[in-house]
């Protein structure tokens, strides 16, 4: 089994697509107005309108109601990304900080309130842990 993607359910597909295009520096693929994908080497981030949940017969996904998942992206330089994103990120949760497990990280919310963590391994152990993974 291969992990394929993470999907965010939203009522504001265009708004989230615009936000993630700025954060990720990648253009979204839009096979339908209610769906978008950011295809990256390590995984795909999908964004689907709340209407798409009905197609799966699953009524349990609620747009902008997530308080348990953090989307994490490995970046080359957390501090540089923080400076780049300052003009359009509205809610910062944690400014760049070196975490006890050896990653330098910054945490913020997307327009729907989903948490995003950008991180860079900075200690020898963290760098070793991520070598070959990404």
Automatic annotation (TrEMBL):
<dbReference type="InterPro" id="IPR051785">
    <property type="entry name" value="MMCE/EMCE_epimerase"/>
</dbReference>
<dbReference type="InterPro" id="IPR037523">
    <property type="entry name" value="VOC_core"/>
</dbReference>
<keyword id="KW-0479">Metal-binding</keyword>
<dbReference type="InterPro" id="IPR004360">
    <property type="entry name" value="Glyas_Fos-R_dOase_dom"/>
</dbReference>
<protein>
    <submittedName>
        <fullName>VOC family protein</fullName>
    </submittedName>
</protein>
<dbReference type="InterPro" id="IPR029068">
    <property type="entry name" value="Glyas_Bleomycin-R_OHBP_Dase"/>
</dbReference>
<feature type="domain" description="VOC">
    <location>
        <begin position="2"/>
        <end position="121"/>
    </location>
</feature>
<dbReference type="Pfam" id="PF00903">
    <property type="entry name" value="Glyoxalase"/>
</dbReference>
């Amino acid at each position: 089994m291969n992990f394929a993607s993470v999907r965010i359910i939203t009522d504001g597909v265009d708004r989230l697509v615009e936000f993630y295009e700025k954060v990720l520096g990648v253009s979204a693929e839009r096979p339908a107005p209610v769906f978008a994908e950011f295809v990256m080497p390590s995984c795909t981030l999908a964004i689907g309108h709340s209407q798409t949940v009905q197609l799966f017969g699953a009524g349990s996904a609620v747009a902008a109601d997530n308080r348990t998942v953090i989307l994490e992206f490995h970046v080359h330089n957390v501090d540089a990304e923080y400076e780049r994103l300052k003009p359009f990120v509205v809610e910062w949760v944690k400014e760049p900080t070196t975490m006890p497990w050896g990653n330098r990280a910054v945490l913020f919310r997307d327009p729907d309130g989903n948490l995003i963590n950008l991180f860079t391994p900075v200690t020898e152990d963290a760098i070793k842990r991520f070598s070959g993974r990404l």
